[in-house]
Amino acid sequence: MLIDTHCHLDAAEFAADRDAVARAAAAAGVAAMIVPSVAPENFAAVRACCERHAGCHPAYGTHPLYVDRAGETAFDALRACLDREMGGAHPPVAVGEIGLDFFVPGCDAARQERFFVEQLKIARDFDLPVLLHARRAVEAVLQHLRRIGARGGVAHAFNGSRQQADAFLRLGFRLGFGGAMSFPRAARIRRLAASLPDEAIVLETDAPDIPPAWLAGGRNTPAELARIAGVLAELRGAGRAEVEASTTGNAVSTLRLPAIGGQQGTDDRHRSGKCLQACRFKEKTP
Length: 286
What we know:
The chain has helices at residues 18-27, 43-52, 73-85, 109-125, 138-148, 162-170, 187-195, 225-236, 240-254, 266-273, and strands at residues 2-4, 30-36, 56-60, 94-101, 130-135, 153-155, 173-177, 201-203. It is of the alpha/beta class. The chain has one domain (2-273): Alpha-Beta Barrel (TIM Barrel), CATH 3.20.20. Strands 1-2-3-4-5-6-7-8 form an 8-stranded parallel beta sheet, with helices on both faces. The model is unreliable at 267-286 (pLDDT under 50).
């Protein structure tokens, strides 16, 4: 049993065969997929995707590469969405995809940081973990996390140093590994995947982006998570079942997931003890 902690199943790239893609993922052993939004404009599409496909769970937020086109209403829209959905049939499991991206030339770093900080505060108010995007901005992301605080979450597509990895772990985060570690030239990612403690790692595809080496730049899909898990097992010198169990347990314990395959999710643990407060464009490189 596998959990894809980052999969844009709502993306236009899946418009022609989304149902078949979801079925193939289930057949490959993917029991759950986290579907993050990138802007308020696709909140409805993420929700509809999760309503239609069993095992899909939504996350809502504004991606750093969308903040230039997002208005001041984006924060109110996120709060209203979380207020509405937290008690619904498909409650959000995180706020995301949020963070910082200083890779794209000419980005408005100050605006990105303002959106990141405000969305961290919203996640804190709703007691939700976060799905983090941090490209050429890991130290800045860590700085804001230390200052604002967060309930933990996932550092998506992690590509930092071991020191930075340890900093995320101390803050209660897991690190997302996917297709990038299948490339022999991705030496740093592969070393981290091999050497981090079991409790550090969750699996993801970022489908349709970050295709693994065997797709030769083609469209990524959540069904590839099974083979990605095999790569992780090989790098760690571990059995496939061991990797599946540890990464699934990490995802369930970090995100606000319901119980999956007998593992109790954080949602189950928190509901009884705490009251809950009330266009895609991404550049990815392996």
